[in-house]
Amino acid sequence: LNKYNAHFFPWMLTLGVYLLLIGQIFEMYRLKVASDQFRIVRSIVLTTFFTTFFYIFTPVIAPELPPKRIYILYLYLAITIPILLWRFAYIFFIFTPKYFKDILILGESQSVSKVIDLIISKAPENHIVGYFTSEKILKYPDIPFFDKKTDELIPIVNLYSVTEIIVTDRLKSVKTNSINQDLVKLFENGIAIKNIENYYEEITSCIPRHHLNEDFYRNISFSKNHEDRMYLALGRLIDIILSIIGLVFLLFLIPFVLVGNLVANRGPLFYKQERIGLKGKAFKIIKFRSMVKNAEENGAVWAVKKDPRVTVFGKFLRKTRFDEIPQFYNILKGEMAFIGPRPERPKFVEELASKINLYRIRHVIKPGLTGWAQVMYPYASSVEEQGKKLRFDLYYIKNRSFYLDFKIIIKTFSTVLFFRGN
Prior knowledge:
Blueprint: H1 2-25, H2 31-34, H3 37-56, H4 70-94, E1 101-106, H5 109-122, E2 126-133, E3 145-147, H6 153-159, E4 164-167, H7 176-188, E5 192-195, H8 196-204, H9 229-264, E6 270-276, E7 282-288, H10 312-320, H11 328-333, E8 337-339, H12 346-355, E9 368-370, H13 372-376, H14 383-399, H15 402-417
């Protein structure tokens, strides 16, 4: 008994770490998943299965293999059932308006309407108690309207137990000074006051479209890690370690891909293509070929959904992201990083840079095998969609850190496991 007591803490710590990491991969802690009965059951079952699997085969910091296999099932059920019960309790008793964040929106009618649209679509866990503006928004008759010409801000906040106020723009009324003074008092009393730019980034994880203009320097900056030597050196070390692991995996993968290539993807196994990297310099990217031979004999064209040039085996390579594995060689050479904006072809860069403001900012850091835009947005096959992806890339450039890098790695695993590749 004393022997087990001595090991209890490291065993539980190991189990907790596995649940945390694997739960992130299978999105068990994602709010939209946690509030959906079907998705959360699937997420929990997968999380606890792989947690149990890795846990029982972990040496030293986990218990020895049990003498009977039935004990493994007991362990699995002991992990799964409490989590399922907790999550269902969360859905039915906690994920209710009673526990939502109570938000008041303050500003002009047009911008307030856009914020309401944003919250409804992107942050349903936020409860809008009302909006404080100069005129009623007919589109939302059920959301309380407070007239800033006659109503007082502080009594409204107290009455509705508001915890957060979103200010959409500079107020234009004779009461502006009075409202600003009220905001200061509320802020001093612990009420969160956020401008729309910060709130937009918080719930969408991308840069607002209107920031891509000549005043970009007011809102878009480089991360504090942009010139941090420790962050850059550790990042490069991690890139080298991951690229070596990736290349070892590539050696085991090649025979399998070779057979698939011979059967359903006839032609060269690899192909090289020129891409634009750090500081706008061109380099050759390496991939497993997923399209028919001579797919671009008439020139470079955008890939599209259900592209007829992609072979049957090529679809599998793209869905699993296996076609990208050879790029670990580019990472080892230093032409790419594991995380960063995806490199584009010179022709597309010229076209996109001529139509999208600030597009070349993507080249201030190394291109990546995966990135924030890749895990947050589907494949972009048009200029408009590339503009949306750019806003995610700029968010990464503005906020990159080890924590954000870790989130990208976890989301990349989730993308691969659920075959969300394109």
